[in-house]
C-alpha cells in the first residue's frame, strides 16, 4: 500500500476562472521520496498541505487524499488531528516561524508526544535526545531558546520535531529556501540520510528540478495546477518528455555546470483569473500546434511514469 495517494484532486477557490488544482494524481510509496516540482503558483504547496488535510476553508474540493489507506477528505476534525499528530509531519520553509520564541527547544520537541500519546517527560526527553543526535545536534540544545540557534540548526530541530512521532509520511515544503547555500547542501544531505535511516516516505516540494533529482526516487512536475510529467528522477532528468520539464531543466543553475548558459522560460504561467482551454503550457511552448491550443492533453502512462503532452512521442524521438 502507498503511504500517500492523491487521486484526481480538484480544488476551486471563489473568484477564480479555473481550478487551482486540476485533477492532481500522485502517490508516494512506503519509504519512497517523491519531489513535487514547479514554478511559483503552480499549486505545490496546496497539494502538499492537502496531504495534511489542510485545505482553504472556502475551497470547493473533489477527489481523494489517502494517507496509509484512509481518506483525509472524509475524516472528522478529531480524526484529522490524530493524523497530523502521529502519521504525517511537515517541515516548513522558514524554521523560525514554526517555533515559539519563548519556549525552550526541549519543550517544543517533547510536547506533541506528551500531549497526544501521554508519554512521560523522561520517555519523551530520551526520544528527543535520540533525534537530536540523528540530526547532528548536541543535546545541550534542549535547554536553549530558538534565538540562540542559527537558521541551519533550527531547521535541524524542526526536522527532529517532525520525526518525533515516527510518522509514516514527511512533507518538506522548500525546506532549504531560507538557508545559505552551504547549509542548504547540509540539510539536503541530512534529509537523504534520515529517509533511509527512518524509512519515512517523503514528499519534497521545490522549484529546483536539479535539487529534486538529487534527493528523490521519483519526480512529479506541476504546471498550472496539473501534474504534466512524472517519472523516475534520473530518467526524467536525462530524457524529459514534456517541453515544460525540458524548459525547467534548461533554466535552473547546476552545481556541476555553474557557468552553463541558462535559458529563461519565456512568458508567465497563467494566473488564476485566466480560464484555460487546451494545453496550459501551449502559450509558452516552442512546439505548440493548433491541437495543443484546442485540446487539453490527457495524462498518459509512459515507461515508469506519465506525461500530458500531445506531441511527447515525436518530441522524445527528436530529443527535446
Ligand atoms: N487560500 C488561498 N486563497 C486564494 N488563493 C490561494 C490560496 N492559497 C493559494 N492560493 C493561490 O493558488 C495558487 C497556487 O498556490 P501554491 O501556494 O500551492 O503555489 P506554489 O506552487 O506552492 O507556489 P510557491 O512556490 O510560490 O509557494 C497561487 O496562485 C496562490 O496565489
From TrEMBL:
Protein location: Cell membrane
Keyword Transport: yes
SMART domains listed in its UniProt record: AAA
A Gene Ontology cellular-component term: plasma membrane
Residues of the ABC transporter domain: 4-249
Gene Ontology molecular function: ATP binding; ATP hydrolysis activity
InterPro entries listed in its UniProt record: AAA+_ATPase, ABC_Ni/Peptide_Import, ABC_transporter-like_ATP-bd, ABC_transporter-like_CS, Oligopep_ABC_C, P-loop_NTPase
Keyword Calcium applies: no
GO biological process: peptide transport
Coiled-coil ranges from the UniProt annotation: none
Protein family: Belongs to the ABC transporter superfamily.
Protein name as annotated: Oligopeptide/dipeptide ABC transporter ATP-binding protein
Amino acid at each position: 500500500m502507498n503511504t500517500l495517494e492523491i487521486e484526481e484532486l480538484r480544488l476551486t477557490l471563489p473568484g477564480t476562472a479555473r481550478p487551482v488544482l486540476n485533477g492532481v494524481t500522485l502517490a508516494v510509496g512506503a519509504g519512497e521520496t517523491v519531489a513535487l516540482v514547479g514554478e511559483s503558483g503552480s499549486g505545490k504547496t496546496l497539494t502538499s498541505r492537502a496531504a495534511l488535510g489542510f485545505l482553504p476553508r472556502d475551497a470547493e474540493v473533489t477527489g481523494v487524499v489517502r494517507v496509509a489507506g484512509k481518506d483525509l477528505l472524509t475524516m472528522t476534525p478529531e480524526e484529522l488531528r490524530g493524523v497530523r499528530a502521529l502519521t504525517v509531519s511537515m517541515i516548513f520553509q522558514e524554521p523560525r516561524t514554526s517555533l515559539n520564541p519563548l519556549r525552550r527547544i526541549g519543550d517544543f520537541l517533547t510536547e506533541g508526544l506528551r500531549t497526544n500519546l501521554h508519554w512521560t517527560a523522561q520517555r519523551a526527553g530520551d526520544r528527543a535526545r535520540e533525534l537530536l543526535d540523528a540530526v547532528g545536534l548536541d543535546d545541550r540544545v534542549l535547554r536553549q531558546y530558538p534565538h540562540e540557534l542559527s537558521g541551519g540548526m533550527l531547521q535541524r530541530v524542526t526536522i527532529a520535531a517532525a520525526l518525533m512521532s515516527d510518522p509514516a509520511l514527511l512533507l518538506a515544503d522548500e525546506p532549504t529556501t531560507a538557508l545559505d547555500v552551504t547549509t542548504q547542501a547540509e540539510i539536503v544531505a541530512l534529509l537523504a540520510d534520515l529517509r533511509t535511516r527512518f524509512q519515512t516516505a517523503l514528499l519534497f516540494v521545490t522549484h529546483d528540478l536539479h535539487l529534486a533529482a538529487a534527493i528523490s526516487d521519483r519526480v512529479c512536475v506541476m504546471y498550472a495546477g496539473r501534474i504534466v510529467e512524472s517519472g523516475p528522477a534520473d530518467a526524467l532528468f536525462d530524457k524529459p518528455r514534456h517541453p515544460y520539464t525540458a524548459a525547467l531543466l534548461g533554466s535552473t543553475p547546476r552545481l556541476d555546470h555553474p557557468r552553463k548558459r541558462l535559458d529563461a522560460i519565456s512568458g508567465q504561467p497563467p494566473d488564476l483569473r485566466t480560464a484555460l482551454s487546451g494545453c496550459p503550457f501551449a502559450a509558452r511552448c516552442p512546439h505548440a500546434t493548433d491541437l495543443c491550443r484546442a485540446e487539453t492533453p490527457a495524462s498518459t502512462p509512459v515507461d515508469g511514469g506519465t506525461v500530458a503532452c500531445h506531441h511527447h512521442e515525436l518530441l522524445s524521438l527528436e530529443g527535446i
